[in-house]
## 1
Amino acid sequence: MASSTIISRKMIKLLSPTPPSLRCHKLSFMDHINFHLHSPYAFFYPKIPQNYSSKISQILENSLSKVLSFYYPLAGKINNNYTYVDCNDTGVEYLNVRIDCPMSQIIDDPYNDAVGVVFPQDLPWSSSWNRSPLVVQLSHFDCGGIAVSACTSHTIFDGHSLSKFINDWASTARNMDFKPSPQFNASTFFPLPSETNLSSTLPTTHPSKRHVSRMYNFSSSNLTRLKDMVTKESHVKNPTRIEVASALVHKCGVTMSMEKSGMFKPTLMTHAMNLRPPIPLNTMGNAVCIILTTTVTEDEVKLPNFVAKLQKDKQQLRDKLKDMKKDMMPLYTLELGKNAMNIIEKDTHDVYVCSGMTNTGLHKIDFGWGEPVRVTLATSNKNNFIFMDEQSGDGLNVLITLTKDYMLKFQSNKELLEFASPVVESTK
């Protein structure tokens, strides 16, 4: 197993201090009820041009310092009841780390768990309380390749906000005259009630060491095959990439569960829906509502039936939110979350959690030395499916996290392997 050695650790300060008028960043109700964890992403660059190799860290540090002047809450401190961020310009943790192996040993490993070495050892998915809302690690491999990892507080950022920040940081690294335009005004759309019931916050969960992850690729042609199969056997129209891919991994999960228990168990699958619009695209913070899709019979698990059900659930949520006052959306989101947690606690359903980081540009993040060969996250909670754009083309990568015994069955599923293949990308 590869090990890491910290070369240096520092705090990156803002290039321009935060004005006193912005010192207190009020968190929104959506922020308050979210999971208070760090979301850990990593970007792998195997071949660095010689003219960049000696100055990579300086480029990252300088551009981070500038972009933080626009994303100032990331350099502050979240208060202990998650109602505001003290934007005190403390700075962002930045680590330079040496990894004692070639990059190929990490990203060619069949399991994604090996990527944990490029994150601060005590950080992935850990609480964002009493820790910098953003922690960056630059990892240097023996082969000369690097990985840039960014762990951002989910209290401050959802996936949309994270992708905006990373894209703006990369743009700044390529052109220091670039000026980002984030707006930290989510609390005006989703105000925190004056008497907040702190016990209403959704519970924080931590991944178990018994969980393992593998990444699978759905090529553009295989996604087209899946879409054709779904539309020919049902009245479903224009299914999306994620709808058909999530329906397949859900079906494989059900098959795996039935092989293990000998019987069908009802399922609950959650998807995240971005609320931008109706709120502006450059609004930072958490603005996501969850879609709950359940099955109670084996027939509902079939791909055409599940996609039809998922589309219906999505449309019902859109209709529900369409005429809803924005300040009521967090309460509704919280209610959906509580409904999901009640099902989880009763153990009446197998639960699968889907999230998507597609159409964000993260698969092409270029700090000046080219695009990454791999973008991924640290291992998450069990039965978790995270969809991302593949590094080239219109396909999808999905990071699947299961318990070890379930993964052994899942990875040999013939229907899965007919449409998806394990991602192992050689850096040689």
Note: The longest helix spans residues 241-261.
## 2
Amino acid sequence: MFESQTAIASSHSPHLRKPGSKSVSSDLGAGEPGNSVQEGYVFPLTVGEMKASNSPMHTTSIMPSPIFLWRFKVIWFLIWAFTCCKIGWDSVMRMSADLRDLFLYEAFLYYNPLLLVTMMVWLWGVCLWVFSQSTINYAKIFDLDSNHLTHIEIWKSSIWMTVIVPTSMTAYLYLYSHGEVALAASQPVILYVAVALVLIFPFDIFYFSSRYFLLRTLWRIALPLQPISFPDFFLADILTSMAKVFSDLERSVCRMVHRQVATIAWFEADSVCGSHSVAIPLVLVIPYIWRLLQCLRQYKDTKEKPTLFNALKYSTAVPVIFLSALKYHVSPDRWTYVYRRLWLFSSVVNSLYSFYWDITRDWDLSVFTRIFKFNKPSLCTNLFYGRRWVYFWVIGSNLILRCTWTYKLSAHLRHNYLTVFMVTALEMLRRFQWIFFRVENEWNKITKSGFQIPMVDMPREEEKLLGSTNHNV
């Protein structure tokens, strides 16, 4: 009986026996029942299983769950945010009351542009997420390949920006309040240089193809000597909402070049980089000039008259900017009775003209029909699809924010830096909702035509240089 047990065990484990070998039962002895019974239970195990079963440290590797990792990251983020706020508040409170406001004004001058850029990157990630959930093929609209950056990758970049910029600002406040003026002055300089190096870094890291696409588009915007593509004028429109960012960047770089960082001399009207500098209106008007030149180039290529009316819309921002700047270069009476009235008139014209163009041309909201037909049922579907209140909200808020944006284009109104920051942030939100309707309108045109019709035949020099037009954005 014991021999039959052993034979059965050996037959179930052929890899434990060699051809022609004796049965293990004969080796152990047929007259030893204990050995035979143990044999019957052990031999069905493989050699690897026997080693693992004999190892006291044999455990299964356990990876942390995504929810745990997410909570862990959130906790660390909250700790970091609390630490920055605590250090920043204590640093500001160490300063005297008369110095505090001027210094905070200067701190906002350096970090306000990058904070607003970070906000815009976050909002762009939200746009890509909504487009990915809807029927809008934004990759086709922007002529992107299948490897373009998703909303998750955009949000990862914005998270790093959200951490780095406030950390540098906190270090700036702390060092200055503790008497380390030289080290404090180096913080915004290091941050600006690092951002510039990341953008132009010529190696295949940090989303190289996306950075290349962005820089190439910016170059095409600055020099509109070629036919205008949809990404060209789309990004140029966004840059018009960031005119204040350009203005603050110019003043920040000016102070860095003249070694005036961590001082309050910039507030003086007669200083090199002062608040009454002639460079301020010149930089504010640059995005509008770029967009105006794009419209003229489009008219040259397409001969469509609406492009001329669009160019006229951007030209109406020029009087608003320069008439406001005249306050610091003319007598008070002349400003009050002549130029101030002209400034008010030009502001009304620019706001209403821009509002009209947004509704009728960029969004084509002559008939309230649809918005974002989502692929999957969700809260967004119930909130937006077929809801006319969404259109009324967008139209009303766009009118109000178009008028308040004049506040930012007018240098003589910019006294309270917190108000300026809020108005600029609201303009970012206005542009954010503008993107949804503008892209959806473009997608409707494409689907109605059945295929994408380029605005003009665009020669692609990149095909000759790179052998491919693939890019990520």
Note: The two ends are 76 Å apart (CA to CA).
